[in-house]
Amino acid sequence: MTIRELTADDLPAAWQLGRLAFGGDPQPPPQPAAAPAGRTSYGAFDPAGTLVGKAVDLHDEQWWTGRAVPAADVAGVAIAPEARGTGIARALLRALLRGAHERGAAVSTLFATTSAPYRALGWDVAGHLRTLDLPTTALPRHRPAPHLAVRAGTPADLPATVDLYQRVAAHRNGLLTRTHPRFAPGDELPYDGLTLVEHDDTLVGYAGWNRGRGYGPDSVLTVEDALATSADAARALIGVLASWHSVAPTVRLTPLTGDALSAHLPVERAREHERDTWMHRPVDVVRAVEARGWPAHVRGQVTFALTDELADWNTGTWQLTVADGQARLRRSSTDTDLHLTVRGFARLYTATATARTLAEAGLLQHRTPDPGALDLLAAGAPAQALDYF
């Protein structure tokens, strides 16, 4: 078995492997002359030179409390049916992590169709990306506040929506910075329509939406992206969405937990249309700790041992120090009673578990009565995901 980076010549075979794995369109798309920018694709080849497995490292960045952290977001993992269960996925993802480590990545996120194989490789479930259906008639029909202007957007407005996204996302944890080439604004709108809310010619809210087909009881208005920076802007956007009630009985959207829009949606009327599980792990624990921002009020120090079978550079005993919105992670020779798995590290880092719950799950071994000192690693808001890949 040979594992190497894919070239442009390998792309047709990689597309076919992905189509079979994920049930895509049988008609192949036009093949680019070169491998797409901003990503590294890895392939596993059998002795005959046939591609039997692939995985893609997306060179993303993620916001963590005001700082952009380099990420290796994993997509397109596919193994030929005859080669499944032979360790190819482990070998592919080991190579991907090593390559990501060499290029400076700190953390990794992936969306999993099944969690068990990825848990065996050090990723763990950190959350769910939920797409909701709301009855359009249940949306409040707010009129825009007098100081706001609502208008249709054009491609020239896309850079302003990018700037607004950064204002909303930067102080949260886990959201993509959307600086990857796949997010670059194009010459055309990526939606059927773009609704803008402005205050003194400054964008304070937007919604990109697709109309869908028909106008009967099954008609759906799909909101692909919607954010606001104030309550008034959120209410104005919701009022526009509510105006579709006569021809689109359902509004489908993926809200960001705790944001301005969510605060004004009748979420008690929502039905879950889709749920995508996302998982997280460190690529390099030192970078993961030191590249991110930390809550300014948090101070402390804790020593712990970590085991990472897939990325052995993370294995060892570490001392974590957090103060003044920053953190340091240094190797330590001190004995410690706290022994953490890499999955446990991921759960703490994303603030989706505590030391006690990790101990109950078998992801933390300790002899001390209270392992709570390790909750220092979980300081900050829980991580979220908003973009599927």
Automatic annotation (TrEMBL):
Domain called N-acetyltransferase: residue spans: 1-146
Ranges where the record places region Disordered: 21-40
Gene3D superfamilies: 3.40.630.30, SCP2 sterol-binding domain (3.30.1050.10)
UniProt-listed InterPro entries: Acetyltransf_17, Acetyltransferase_Eis, Acyl_CoA_acyltransferase, Eis_dom, GNAT_dom, SCP2_sterol-bd_dom_sf
One GO biological process term: aminoglycoside antibiotic catabolic process
Highest taxon of source: Bacteria
GO molecular function: aminoglycoside N-acetyltransferase activity
Signal peptide region: none
Name listed for the protein in its UniProt record: GCN5 family acetyltransferase
Organism: Micromonospora maris
